[in-house]
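Sample entry (207 residues):
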Amino acid sequence: MSSINLDEIKFDERGLIPAIVQDAKTRQVLTLAYMSRESLARTIETGETWFWSRSRNELWHKGETSGNTQRVMSLALDCDRDAIVVLVDPAGPACHTGSVSCFDTAAVEASNNLGPLLEQLYELIESRQHERPAGSYTTYLFDAGLDKILKKLGEESAETIIAAKNEEREPLVSEVSDLIYHLMVLMVERGVTLEMVASELSKRSKG
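Predicted structure, serialized as tokens:
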């Protein structure tokens, strides 16, 4: 984040730059907000999103009252230096309506097919292995080593089995998601790529 040069940014006549906020894991667009030079500086300094509220004409720390903060994973300027993409780890809904995204429509949800999401999640986990950012659960797993990863995978497997005995589907969906995440952490730790798995499954589909 600190690599961004504030002097290079082309703020508009109001001193603002549009900020496209995306979930770092799923790449779902959460909201479109605006940042001033000061709010961007605070975002970089604190590691959480700060915006400029055009309606209240003041700085706005996302989640200050709701608790739905957004931990910033990365910032990227476009080629013209007049727009910014903010990848975040959200602590709750981004929209004031309580929706995950301000663009949380059926059309957007339909685009969240599993393939691209798995690729994005794999890339995120891989970046955690290389960068080891402080405070990240994935960093904790990699720092703890293979035995800890295997232990967590075993726990998630057991919890998935237990959830499968439940009549409600939602707990099973949650546990399967946890299982897939920890399985992908193991894959990254052991150097197994999604392409390798895809190739093996492709062979089996022809049998």
